[in-house]
Each structure stands twice: as structure tokens, then as C-alpha cells.
Amino acid sequence: MAVTMNDVARAAGVSLKTVSNVLNDYEFIRPATKQRVQDAIAELGYEANLTARSLRSGKTSMLGLVLSDLSAPYYAELASKLMKAAAQRGYRVLVEQSDAEGSVELNALQGPFRQLTDGLLFTPLAIDADAVAARVGKKPLVMLGEHIVDPRFDLVTMKNREAAAAITTHLLSSGRRRIAVIGAHPGESTGSAGLRLNGYRTALEEAGVPFDPALVAPAVWRRDNGATALAGLLDAGVRFDAVFGLNDVLALGALHELQIRGVRVPQDVAVAGFDDIDEARFASPSLTTVSPGMDEIAERSIGLLLDRIAGNETAATGVHVEAGFELKIRESAP
Predict the structure, then answer these.
(1) CA R_g for the chain
(2) Which of 18, 238, 259, 282 is placed for a possible disulfide with 233 were both Cys, Cβ 3.0 to 4.6 Å?
(3) For the domain 160-291, what is the CATH superfamily, name and number?
(4) Is the CATH number 1.10.260.40 carried by domain 5-48?
């Protein structure tokens, strides 16, 4: 027969309400009383019925997180930081990988995934703002990234344009003038690639260096594509003295290709990336990059979502937050 809360209360010598308070982490409980209840729970093997509890309270203490590709190091590291930030506040995170498919993103807004969570952290790539607005419902939602920037939604993102300009300026300040860009997405202006390319062009203009389209190599943001794009520049005879990968995995792929071609880094070609993934520190040479405030993004997005859930944030329009950034100057582009 299943152990009940009444059994725990009798074993601990406390009221049913006290057991409930311990299970719900009520803060105003004497430590000795809390320990007696926890000992009774352990001894009896009591397991809380989370489904029944959530039906009574209307809360699940779960947050949803939708990301496009968890194999991408940036997303994997961000997910880890979001989970830790949520855990510190008594929440767990349920993760959905969308693969940038519109059907998955839409289902995350209305299906069982949404019902299991109190709020959603959302990085949509396939659907637009109106599609989100039509399905978002009453539960809070915080956008991550820059695919959708809309006053109807809360948003936590990074300073893509400013950070890209800063890393380009660093390369220029070291005397580099022919800076190749790996990872552009033709026709994009508002996504990460478009904003970072815009920052690159702004830095060139401010330094009086002409923009050369031949130095821009389109690529999907994966390591092998970084190597392939760099190889294409070399094989085409394009001259360059620096490479800016629009994310770190592209830069690391380019770095690998330069090394197997016998091009010295940084003596012949400097290399810089964007994201400051953990691997960037341990590359050889270590990768100069932009740290886009991943810790701040995690803290601010979880904090904003929980404030919405609790009713502490009541702004009628979306709250928009941009995390700060820092250049990490390492061996590949000192």
C-alpha cells in the first residue's frame, strides 16, 4: 500500500500541514522539525504525487526550454546555465529540441509540453511573431536570441552588432586590413549572422577600410563548414590576413584548415570567433573571441520568466534585455 502524507505526519509527530510545508520548501519551518519530516520521508519511502500537487496549485515548478540544436556547443552550454539558474530558484527545466522545424515550435506553444510547464524560454527560428502571438496563451514566455524582436514579447539577447564591431576593431588595431568573415547568411539582416556582419562592416567603415564582398564566405554554422568555407577562400586565391568566424565553431574549423595548409596563426593570419564556448580556451592556439554574457543571459532570462510567473513583473509590453559582452584576447589574435 502506498505511503501517504498522513503516514509521514504520524511518523514525524507533526501535522499534515507541516509535512506539506516541508514538501513545498516553505521557508519558515524550524530546522529540527524539517529534519524530522525529512527523516520520516526517507524511512517510509514516501514519494510525492507531483501530478496531484500541480493540479491543486496550478503550478508544476517546471520551465520549458525550446532550442534548435543541442549539439551546437553554444546552445548546450546555455542550456546548462539555464538549468542551474532555474535549480537555484527551485525549478527544473524541460528541454525540447526543435531542429528549426515550424511544427515542433508551434507544438511547444500549445501541446503537452506547454501544459507541463509554468513558463517557456523560447528560441524560434522557423515561425514568426504573429504565429507565436496567436498561440502563446496565458502562460509567460521569454524569447531568447534575436530571431523575433517584438514589443509583445519579453526578450533576453546579446549585443551582436556591438560585439562584432568590437572584435573586428581589435583585429584592425593589430594591423590587419584584409579580414575574412566566415558564416554569413545571404539576405539576412536581423538574425545573429546579419547583425554580426553589420557590426563587422561598421568597424571597417569607422577605420576607413573598404568593405570587400570577396572576403565574405557564407556558411551554415558548423565546424566542418568553417573549414570548407576557409578552404574555398584559399583555393580562390583571396588574400586575407585575419579571419572572423561569426561563431566559435566556424572559427575553430577555419583554424584547423589554416593549420593543415601550413598557414601560421597568428603570424600569417589572425583568427577570432564569437561565443566563448569552453573549447575556445583549449584550442591550439587558444581562440580569441567574444564572450557574449552567457551567464547574464541565463540569470536575466530565468529571473524575468519567474517574475512573470509570480506576477512581480507586470509591464504590459515586453521587457527587452541585452546582456553585456567582453572580448577574450588569446593566442590566435593577440
Answers:
(1) 25
(2) 238
(3) Response regulator (3.40.50.2300)
(4) yes
